[in-house]
Design brief:
With 292 residues, this protein is α/β, with parallel strands linked by helices. It is 42% helix and 16% strand. It is built from 10 helices and 8 strands. One of its GO terms (molecular function) is hydrolase activity.
């Protein structure tokens, strides 16, 4: 009887240790895939007539980080910087680029660091990426066709965190559309891995520390509070599991700027144009036409 009990306890211990190891490895691998995202190929310049004049460009962010992208000169003087999400590249927001270009807006679409054709190996949840957005603003402001008083930005997910933080520190960004980015990355990490306890969080934090990533450096609520004099449109799908309505309202509660939100009916984490092919362009174009 005692031998059976001992054997059972030993087996139970082995199972628990195995489960703990599985949780730790899973957590570490998951975060490693976010901090070191896979690169997707960019491909050639789009040949759509609406992109006539689009050209490949390169510019640098801090510490000599080389960024690659595309530039379309504006026909109306105004320009929008488009910033993709995690594991994406400049092509991810081509649908938005098309309807903006049709209305005469200039565009800068570029690959964030560690994505597409840009330099870098580490993604930082929008922290260092904010400096890359500001580098795109520097590039745009130097172009003779661009009215430097009419530069806006639209970012999706990782890009949303990036443009929000960039705008908080750069008054040249006059209007911002933030898509699928409302919950602070530190809170999102806690929500996603915290239910596993320390074994879910500690390996993830270890991966980030080794990569030099500070998950607490990105604070959307703080960045919203810095934009009380500038317009912000918050966009998220009604079916997006990572962006609850309460998170959007929390951002809107940080001040009294000309801010608004829109939940795209039936959309998840992205694909807003598919879910709402008429209303989505109308909302985004209407926003930029009012404020740029």
């Amino acid at each position: 009887m005692k031998r059976g009990l001992v054997t059972g306890l030993l087996l139970g211990g082995v199972v628990l240790l195995g489960l703990a190891a599985w949780v730790a490895v899973r957590s570490a691998r998951y975060i490693d895939s976010e901090v070191h995202p896979p690169r997707n190929p960019v491909g050639p310049l789009p040949e759509d007539a609406v992109f006539a004049g689009l050209r490949a460009v390169a510019f640098q962010a801090g510490e000599g980080l080389g960024l690659k992208g595309w530039y379309l000169p504006p026909r109306n003087g105004a320009l929008v910087i488009l910033v993709h999400g995690l594991s994406g590249n400049r092509t991810q927001l081509l649908p938005e680029a098309r309807f903006l270009a049709r209305e005469g807006y200039g565009l800068v679409l570029f690959d964030l660091g560690a994505h597409g054709e840009s330099d870098g190996t580490v993604s930082t949840y929008g922290d260092r990426e904010a400096a890359q957005v500001r580098a795109a603003v520097d590039f745009a402001a130097r172009q003779p066709e661009v009215d430097a008083r009419r530069i806006g930005a639209l970012g999706f997910s990782l890009g949303g965190y990036s443009v929000l933080k960039a705008a908080a520190g750069d008054p040249r960004i006059k209007a911002v559309v933030v898509e699928a980015a409302a919950v602070a990355p530190a809170q999102a990490l806690q929500d996603e891995l915290g239910h596993y306890g320390p074994l879910g969080l500690w390996p993830a934090l270890g991966v980030m520390k080794r990569a030099g990533v500070d998950v607490n450096a990105v604070q959307p609520a703080r960045d919203m509070a810095a934009l009380t004099d500038r317009p912000v449109l918050l966009v998220a799908g009604t079916e997006d599991p990572w962006v609850p309505d309460s998170a959007l309202d929390h951002l809107l509660g940080q001040g009294r700027g000309p801010w608004e939100k829109w939940r795209v009916p039936g959309a998840g984490h992205g694909d807003y144009l598919l879910a709402s092919p008429e209303e989505y362009p109308r909302r985004v174009l209407g926003f930029f036409s009012r404020f740029l």
